[in-house]
Amino acid sequence: MQNRIVLITGASSGIGASCATLFANAGAKLILAARRKERLEQLSNELRQKHACEIYLVQLDVTSHSSVAATLASLPSSWSDIDVLINNAGLSRGLDKIYEGDLQNWEEMIDTNIKGLLYVTRSVVPGMVSRGKGHVVNIGSVAGHQTYPGGNVYCATKAAVKAISEGLKQDLLGTPVRVSSVDPGLVETEFSLVRFHGDAEKANNTYQGLTPLTPDDIADIILFCVTRPAHVNINDVLVMPTDQAGPTLVHRQV
Ligand code: NDP
Ligand code: 8X3
Questions:
Q1: How many domains does the chain have?
Q2: pLDDT tens-digit profile of 43-56?
């Protein structure tokens, strides 16, 4: 990864922040994107001290097509040739039945997980094609493989990510640009806190009595995917905790 330029969306927390740490350790140059700039600044200060790595921060809301297009088009020339795009920014909101669902929650999930991922991809991939190198890693989910009760719209967004990863791979056939989807089960991050709008008790219950994956586990898999030889494309990795066998099939110690 030495001197490779890696753009990570949603780098202010969880899986994205772990990717920043592991890729910095591997010698990459990092473009870190998220809405919470102060979080990115704190992370980049820590990484610069530990790894002396080069980091470029962008405050970015992936749901805004105009901001995504303008921000990525105006990267300094020394940062514009992105080698690896990690489309990680995403969220879930609520666990309501569809017929009782909150439209604002739906809009936010669809705008972030599907449209945001598409906007960033649309801005970055043409450069990869014209330079003849690049790797896109989309963060899907077990939720994109199997729908669970209350997951409805979130699961639909991750099923869309699965379809987009497959479609992008097909569209890039004949170019050297690679596409991988990394699809985790339960990972302990701020994900559940966001899903339950800051209700820490509900969020903690998600991981009660089991050993969840850590964000570093996922970052490690992403790093593995992008460091295979150029002729190897890992299409999809479905990864769960040992204590999980499906979205709702979980072993908890009581
Ligand atoms: P976190 O809540 O810890 O991190 C989510 C990240 O996404 C934050 O950095 C947040 O940054 C960013 N983000 C959210 N909305 C936007 C936006 N509009 N624009 C830019 N960045 C945004 O959760 P995770 O690390 O767990 O989630 C990362 C990805 O992993 C998501 O796509 C999620 O769906 C997926 N995933 C998570 C699993 C889990 O169990 N945790 C399992 C399977 C998949 P900020 O708020 O600063 O903008
Ligand atoms: C996150 C995993 O099972 O909570 O995508 O939806 S799950």
A1: 1
A2: 999 999 998 899 99
248 found inside a domain = no
Rounded distance between C-alpha atoms, residue 225 and residue 144, angstroms: 19
Domain range for residue 96? 5-239
Structure tokens given for 109: 């999930």
Q: What pLDDT does residue 230 have? A: 98
- Distance CA(206)–CA(83), nearest Å, equals 35
Is the CB of residue 187 below 6 angstroms from any atom belonging to ligand 1? yes
Query: What three-state secondary structure class fits 140?
Result: coil
Six-digit token string for 242:
């040992």
- Ligand 2 atom with the shortest distance to the CA of 186: 2
Does 253 map to a domain?
A: no
**Domain-embedded: residue 30:** yes
- Model-level pTM greater than 0.90? yes
Residues 6+ apart with CB under 8 A from 218: 15, 18, 19, 139, 182, 184, 187, 239
pLDDT at 254 over 90: no
The CATH number that applies at residue 198 is 3.40.50.720
* Atom of ligand 1 minimally distant from the CA of 63: 18
Place of tokens 């969306």: 9
Quick one: which ligand is closest to 109's CA?
A: 1
246 within some domain? no
Read off the pLDDT of residues 120-131 as tens digits, 9 standing for 90 and up: 999 999 999 999
Select from 30, 37, 59, 191 the residue to mutate for testing ligand 1; criterion: most ligand atoms less than 8 Å from CB: 191
